[in-house]
Amino acid sequence: MKDKLTIGITDCSKYSNYSNWVISYADTVEVLKLGVGDFDAIKKCDGLLLTGGEDVNPRFYNKPENLEYCYADDMNEARDEFELKLLEYSQQNALPVLGICRGMQIGNVFFGGTLIPDIPSWGKPSHAKLANGNDKYHPVNIDSHSWLRRILQADEGLINSNHHQCVDKIGYGLVVSAHSLDGIAEALERSSPENSSFLCLVQWHPERMQDQQSPFVRNILNAFMEAVRTWKRKY
């Protein structure tokens, strides 16, 4: 029997979407909910998935003047602090990390980057959900020289979108590997991924895309889980 792989998933309002997606990889995978106040749970995990959710408070990237552009009823500083601490642990222990939507944003902040707190206010078209509540879909271009390109085996594709914040200044040691046609960064990776632990940060939501066989879904999950399996064997 193959060893169980335990993925820590940060708690959020749509936690089941992420947990069901990860479990779909194989029956040897189990998930552990990571909630504020239970930091030690990460020590039982072989990989970390940072989920979507609330706005990141601008004080964590030294832009308190941007607070007025955030949704006042949709911030959680305790979660911000908790996830930054999880990221610190992950980097100290070479734990594979997959960040989705807010997960990409908090990841960028951890590495010293900043965020655009409200995309339309910065003069870009909205990337928020549609009026009926469904995700918006739009094309994305992949950097042909990126590590992400090797994972996806695609130069472009269609992804979903449901966010009003995005990365601005890119964090230290990171590079943008995918852009929307209007210039929003849709994925970040390490500048030297070959010599570092797995880190994949994407702005779209692979866990709930309509086409679950898309490389922007399946290849992302496969690459993450293979990195988790490798980490488990090593550590």
Brief write-up:
The protein has 235 residues and is an alpha/beta fold. The protein is built from five helices and eleven strands.
Commentary on this structure:
With 235 residues, this protein is of the alpha/beta class. It has 5 helices and 11 strands, in the order βαββαβαββαβββββα. It has helices spanning 15-23, 77-92, 102-110, 147-152, 218-234; strands at residues 5-10, 29-34, 47-50, 97-100, 115-116, 136-142, 156-161, 166-167, 174-180, 185-190, 199-202. A 9-stranded mixed beta sheet has the order 2-1-3-4-11-10-9-6-7, sandwiched between helices. α2 (77-92) crosses α3 (102-110). The longest helix has 17 residues, at 218-234. The mean pLDDT is 97.
Estimate the global geometry from the Cα principal axes.
Answer: globular
Return residue spans where pLDDT drops below 50 for at least 5 consecutive residues: none
Number of DSSP helical runs:
5
Structural class: alpha/beta
Tell me the major beta sheet. Answer: 9 strands, mixed
Strand order of the largest sheet: 2-1-3-4-11-10-9-6-7
Spatial gap, N to C terminus: 19 Å
Count of distinct strands = 11
Secondary-structure element string = EHEEHEHEEHEEEEEH
Strand portion: 15-25%
Please bin the fraction of helical residues.
10-25%
Q: What is the C-alpha radius of gyration, as a whole number of Å?
A: 17 Å
